[in-house]
Amino acid sequence: MTNFQTLMRTELxxxxxxxxxxxxxxxxxxxxxxxxxxxKYMDVILKNVGGADGIxxxxxxxxxxxxxxxxxxxxxxxxxxxxxxLIISFMGLIAxxxxxxxxxxxxxxPVLLQSYLLSKLASHWIxxxxxxxxxxxxxxxxxxxxxxxxxxxxFLFFLILYSLWILYVVSLAILISTFIKSPIxxxxxxxLVSMALIMLKGFNHIVFQLSPGNILTLAEKxxxxxxxxxxxxxVTCFFFILCNIYLAYLKIKRS
Length: 255
Hints:
This protein is mainly alpha-helical. It has helices at 3-17, 20-49, 66-89, 95-100, 102-107, 113-147, 152-179, 183-199, 205-209, 214-223, 232-254. It has one domain.
């Protein structure tokens, strides 16, 4: 077994001990179920909680399509609340090792720094995508039950592209962790940068196309079955992921 495999296995076992696979998955399942239910039963919810006073709901309003509901789940739930909780869950992935002295212990052994960083990247990406995939799958099933069928291949391709965005966020957290010691500050900084990349689309479309956040647009277009797609954003996203890991490598090496 290589050093990379050993380190990644250790990270995954630690996540199992902390029940991270369970509570993160439950969280994303709840997020995945919430949006379809709200879209379908908003008028019933308002009526039963007594909050419909002064609110007029058009009985002839157009029922959203399954694609629109899935898109609102991703953009409104996963990319906001979900992303924040996800980042908080791995905010100490480098800082905790450094503060406890574990990083020095590992790197004084015959372990390549590249293996250490890549094991962090791969293990936390696996943890994240395990939870997100189950949450998204539950949302997909609920959406089909309530709003009609939707192409599974389009949903699957969306999930693959969305996983690249999550891989970038993990690499960003690793990079920031090499410069900041406080886990809270790491989480806040990673969240702010990630949100800024998402919101960049509304401020400068050209810059957004060259940013890693553009992979989200490509992923969302899979849900809307848009044919005019720019797959260059995949290359851009991988480029920024590699840059983040390389800069983290340089920072730790010079420390």
